[in-house]
Amino acid sequence: MFKSLKGLFSPNNKDLRKRIYFTLLVLAVFSLGTNIIVPGAKQITQNLGFLDLLNLMSGGSLKTFSIFALGVMPYITASILTQLLQMDIVPYFKELKEQGATGRQKINRINRYLGILFAFVQGYIYSVAFMGGTTTEVLKSTLILTAGTALLLWLADQISNKGLGNGVSLFIMAGIVNTLPATFIDAFKDFIMADAVSKALGITLFVVFIIAYLIILIGVVYMQISERRIPIQHSTRTDSSYAKEQSYIPLKLNSASVMPVIFASALTSIPQLIAQVIKNETFKNFVDNYIVYTSLTGYILYVVLIFAFGYVYTLMELNPKEMSENLDKNRSYIPGITPGEKTTSYLKGTISRLTVVGSLFLVAIASIPIIFSKISGMSIASGLSISKSVTLGGTGLLIVVGVALETYKQLESSIVSRSYQGSRKRRHRR
Q1: Is pLDDT of 307 > 50?
Q2: What are the C-alpha distances in Å from 352 to residues 153, 214, 320, 358?
Q3: Nearest of 160, 221, 120 to residue 23 by alpha carbon
């Protein structure tokens, strides 16, 4: 790892360093924008509930109601919708999927337009629920929030083209990293600085909190790098010509990444968002007692939804039938498995088993902070509440580690590629 990073300072990688500097500059602009408040808005003091996840991924912008309060989530929602439509639901989107690079460009353009449309609708709902005011004031804040999302999408494109990595993913990671210092500061205040507990108990709880975070971090890294390798053979190749190099299909333990958690949070969010808009106390109490994932029934619903979405999203990303057809096209096969229906069934069974294990890991990582917050909250006599950012720590770390590993792989690949090209040029000159 460190050997590869040393090559970053090589004269051959000057353009790569420029890409890194450009990426850091754009991320600094994003961090600055999270502190620019929408005119006339005030910090949200009420409980955000499920929206804490969106607040986390926007760098705390929703809580402060800044111009980047919506973040890039409207675009992600649009991307998820178009992905679902490609599954033989709408023929047009299925055709775009089969067109290769040209189709992906068209789908990406559609995602941009849909993302801005969703941002307008979402911004209007947030403005009504949290800001209020006259119709003119609501529309004004809605347009500002929509413009903020549009600017972020443009900056994300600039990072993808001129910077390093996927711009949308980096913005989400930067938002979470931006809130990490506040997470530990809040935990320190809740555990040690509070007068409700003794110093010894507070220090013990804070140390346990740090250990819990480290366990989550190790678990997330393990889950992100774990994969099941299915060996394949090519009928057009011989072992001797390729020095018996084994080819395989890498299936990640958690192919869906954090998407099931986002889906589950989004679904459980709908009743709470309705409660914020209609302002009915009875309905709000019902949601808080039975739907929010910090309640027993809400937690069970949360776990079930994570499992369900994990299975559906994984099969959507890794379509066994398409994988089997691609093997046939490349004249490849899985040893001991008959091509065709048998291969499709084998891949579907393998993916299903991996999804169960991956979903269990995902549930465990998402549950550790929730359980810890409940236990630590009950340990404090005065009813001291632990920061919501602590509860969402596992989900945030899952996103950060996933994006960080992917960005590092891209960086390492670029360094190795440039190093190889440089050595070839030197040999050619000799």
Answers
A1: yes
A2: 34, 29, 10, 10
A3: 160
230 DSSP 8-state letter: E
Residues 299 and 293: beta-carbon distance below 8 Å: yes
DSSP one-letter string for 245-285: PPEEEEEETTTTTTHHHHHHHHHHHHHHHHHHHH--HHHHH
Q: Can you state the angle between helices 259-278 and 281-290, rounded to 10 degrees?
A: 160
Is residue 367 over pLDDT 80? no
CA atoms within 13 A on the CB side of 196: 15
Q: Mind spelling out the 3-state secondary structure of 101-123?
A: HHHHHHHHHHHHHHHHHHHHHHH
Pairing between β-strand 227-234 and β-strand 332-333 as defined by DSSP bridges: antiparallel
Sequence-ordered list of residues with C-beta below 8 angstroms from that of 425, at least 6 positions apart, any chain: none
Write down the residue that tokens 């460190």 correspond to: 2
Cα separation, 417 vs 398, whole angstroms: 29
pLDDT tens digits, 243-255 = 455 688 888 887 7
Structure tokens at 71: 């973040």
**Is the Cα dihedral 236, 237, 238, 240 positive or negative?**
positive
Query: Computed from CA positions of residues 171, 79, 217, 410, in that sequence, does the dihedral angle turn out positive or negative?
Result: negative
Position 383 scores a pLDDT of 33
- At residue 42, φ and ψ (nearest 5 deg) are -125, 160
- Assess whether pLDDT exceeds 50 at residue 381: no
Residue appearing with tokens 């046939």: 328
Picking from 190, 117, 173, the residue whose alpha carbon sits closest to that of residue 372 is: 190
Q: List own/partner pairs for 175-178 with CB under 8 A and 24 or more apart.
A: 175/30, 175/34, 175/56, 175/57, 175/58, 175/59, 175/60, 175/61, 175/71, 176/56, 176/57, 176/59, 176/396, 176/399, 176/400, 177/400, 178/31, 178/34, 178/59, 178/60
Q: Report the interhelical angle of 14-33 vs 393-429 (nearest 10°).
A: 160
Measured N-to-C along each axis, helices 259-278 and 341-378 cross at an angle, to the nearest 10 degrees, of 50
Predicted TM-score (pTM) of the model is 0.75
Q: Which of 118, 153, 123 shows the shortest CA–CA distance to 138?
A: 123
What is the pairing mode between strands 247-252 and 227-234? antiparallel
Task: Specify the 3-state DSSP secondary structure of 338.
Answer: coil
Let me know: does 204 contact 84? Beta carbons within 8 Å: no
